[in-house]
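#struct-pred
JK: can someone run the complex with flavin mononucleotide? inputs below
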Amino acid sequence: MNFREISEKRRAINFFDPQQDVSEQLLTEVIELAAKTPSSFNLQPWNLMVLRDQKKKEKLKTLAWDQPKVIEAPVVLIFLADKNGWQEGHATVEKNWQEMVKAGSMQPEQRQWFLDAAQSLYNWSPEANLAFAAKNTGFFAMSLMYAATSLGLETHPMDGFDHEGVRKEFDIPDNFWIPLLLAVGYKKPGLEMHPAKWRKTTDEIIVSFDR
Ligand SMILES: Cc1cc2nc3c(=O)[nH]c(=O)nc-3n(C[C@H](O)[C@H](O)[C@H](O)COP(=O)(O)O)c2cc1C
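RT: done, structure tokens with the ligand placed:
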């Protein structure tokens, strides 16, 4: 499938086939493809919780507007956006630094510059922490949806859930914002799809603020 085919095929699927599982191998392939997503300074401030257990999915469903897809889909992903993913000492930040030095894209003496740059871009307000985490994790989520489509899977993103309720139920630490849940699986057999939904035109998307 080329990109046009993938983007035209992907739809938010409301009803999944509970009988058709998603293998670990296929899920790993989806995640590995999505992991190619670009991010600020390559900091990759995202994590995933993978829910397959029916009891856990039942708990999540009650916190997610009782949306049936949460239990019908064999896999539900909780996306986590790490608001601290720019900080000195954070495991990914340190790994990223070492990788950049190893690759020669940064010199050891540039470390303070790098840390100061991350600090000034992503830590000038609590909103900046959140924006950093949420925008990068949003890109990752979109890549993951397209990756899943390209491998024959269906997905459904959800932000209709009780954010703090999910945090509490699943012991998610405070440094994470939860931008979305994602149901992953296969379409319920016989499901009739509505026509694709409308989208803004290019003219509606492009704006200018010329005086
Ligand atoms: C971040 C995000 C959150 C969403 N949350 C929900 C949700 O909680 N429940 C739901 O039924 N649809 C949800 N949707 C699905 C959208 O309504 C759907 O993607 C949109 O109407 C376009 O339809 P399409 O994805 O089939 O093209 C969400 C989509 C996104 C991207």
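RT: quick notes.
The first helix runs from residue 3 to 9.
The longest strand covers residues 75-82.
JK: thanks, will look after standup
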